[in-house]
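Progress note, sequence design subtask.
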């Protein structure tokens, strides 16, 4: 059985002190929901205080990105080695990084390999823009991102990877893909994984949905066969909202 995973991507929000205070309030409220893997992804500067505050909690910590380089003259970048001991997960391939930082599929592939080499678990994100969506080309486009991002990744390494389908047109816009469409695309992604690896790996891989996920629509998404959790933005910045998301996931999935 796939263990559902809810990850909060805080983006550029919360100082180090604010992050620590937030998770100290969050942790006891999330403690009862042991059937769900719970992850918070603060900004780099807040990773140490967040990790320290959660040291005795089952809540996992994730980073929001990582460099493909081991070390060197890469001003402003953070290597996978630097994240060891601070984070268990790392988001790679988020649409904002693709757009604002110019990350290509090839760069994302190298980042996934760098993360895995240092024991980090990638949350590998992919998604289409509105033009692709309206043209009916979502699965072909997203499937291409999956294939490129996983080039050279072994079947064994796939056990450490979580996939996240995030339609770009639904991120921070208030719009969201309806649950049936999201399930269709995540199911299609699972089919791509089967073609690349095996039916067993495809069945085991966890696939999140992201894009204007909120307490009001969480149960609908979690009721879908192929959706195993959520990569959440704004709703993860509010304690009660994040708790509601996790509670809905546990109740819906029967975890």
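Output:
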């Amino acid at each position: 059985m796939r263990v559902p995973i809810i990850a909060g991507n805080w983006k550029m929000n919360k100082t180090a002190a604010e992050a620590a205070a937030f998770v100290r309030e969050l942790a006891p409220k999330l403690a009862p929901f042991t059937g769900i893997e719970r992850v918070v992804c603060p900004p780099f500067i807040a990773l140490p205080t967040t990790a320290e505050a959660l040291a005795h909690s089952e809540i996992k910590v994730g980073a929001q990105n990582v460099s493909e380089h081991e070390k060197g003259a890469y001003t402003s970048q953070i290597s996978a080695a630097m994240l060891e001991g601070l984070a268990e997960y790392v988001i790679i391939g988020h649409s904002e990084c693709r757009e604002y930082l110019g990350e290509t599929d090839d760069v994302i592939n190298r980042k996934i390999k760098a993360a895995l080499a240092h024991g980090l678990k990638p949350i590998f994100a992919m998604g289409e823009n509105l033009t692709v969506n309206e043209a009916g080309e979502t699965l072909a486009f997203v499937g291409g991102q999956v294939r490129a991002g996983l080039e050279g990744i072994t079947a064994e390494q796939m056990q450490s990877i979580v996939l996240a389908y995030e339609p770009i047109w639904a991120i921070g816009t208030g719009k969201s893909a309806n649950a049936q469409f999201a399930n269709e695309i995540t199911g299609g992604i699972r089919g791509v994984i089967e073609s690349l690896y095996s039916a067993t790996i495809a069945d085991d891989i966890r696939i999140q949905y992201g894009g204007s996920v909120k307490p009001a629509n969480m149960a609908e998404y979690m009721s879908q066969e192929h959706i195993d959790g959520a990569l959440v933005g704004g709703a993860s910045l509010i304690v009660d909202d994040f708790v509601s998301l996790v509670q809905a996931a546990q109740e819906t999935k029967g975890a």
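The CA atoms of residues 194 and 202 lie 5 Å apart. Work on this subtask will continue into the next period as scheduled.
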